[in-house]
Amino acid sequence: MPSMTFAASANAVRYTGAEAVFVDSRPEDGNLDVELLLEALDILVDEGADIAAVMSVDLFMRCVDYTALLSGLQGRGIPLIEDAAEALGASHRGRAAGSFGQSGVLSFNGNKVLTTAGGGMLVSDPDPRVVVG
User: Fold this and answer.
1) Domains of the chain by range and CATH?
2) CA–CA separation, 77 vs 116, rounded Å?
3) C-beta separation of 92 from 64 below 8 A
4) What is the pTM of this model?
5) pLDDT tens over the chain, length 133 residues
6) Distance between CA atoms of 13 and 35, rounded to whole angstroms?
7) In whole angstroms, what is the distance from residue 70 CA to residue 50 CA?
């Protein structure tokens, strides 16, 4: 997951009993540096790590480079979970934030783009064996 995120994203990983591994974000937009992530994945796999998923976090109404990310993850057989809580309404190449991973989460907290004063939404692919891309 990207190093620039809100604690809730990392907490979700910990709540499952998994360990979050942070990768630096791009200075241009604060989003996940896909190239660094793919390098980190290869190192972790070489070290024998079991990687359950990658979590992207779209920030400041900007999406991660999902073209590069999905290509890299599909080649490695690793699913994507997308935190689009800060990007409702954003898109990457005409596709909406929150629609790239096997699961996507959106937040409607008071400080988000669309607010209901709290709550959120979980969206998922109907076939959990398929990596959307």
Assistant:
1) 7-124 (3.40.640.10)
2) 36
3) yes
4) 0.84
5) 788 777 888 888 889 898 889 999 898 888 899 999 999 999 999 999 999 999 999 988 899 999 999 999 998 999 999 999 888 889 999 999 999 998 898 887 767 777 677 778 888 876 655 544 4
6) 22
7) 19
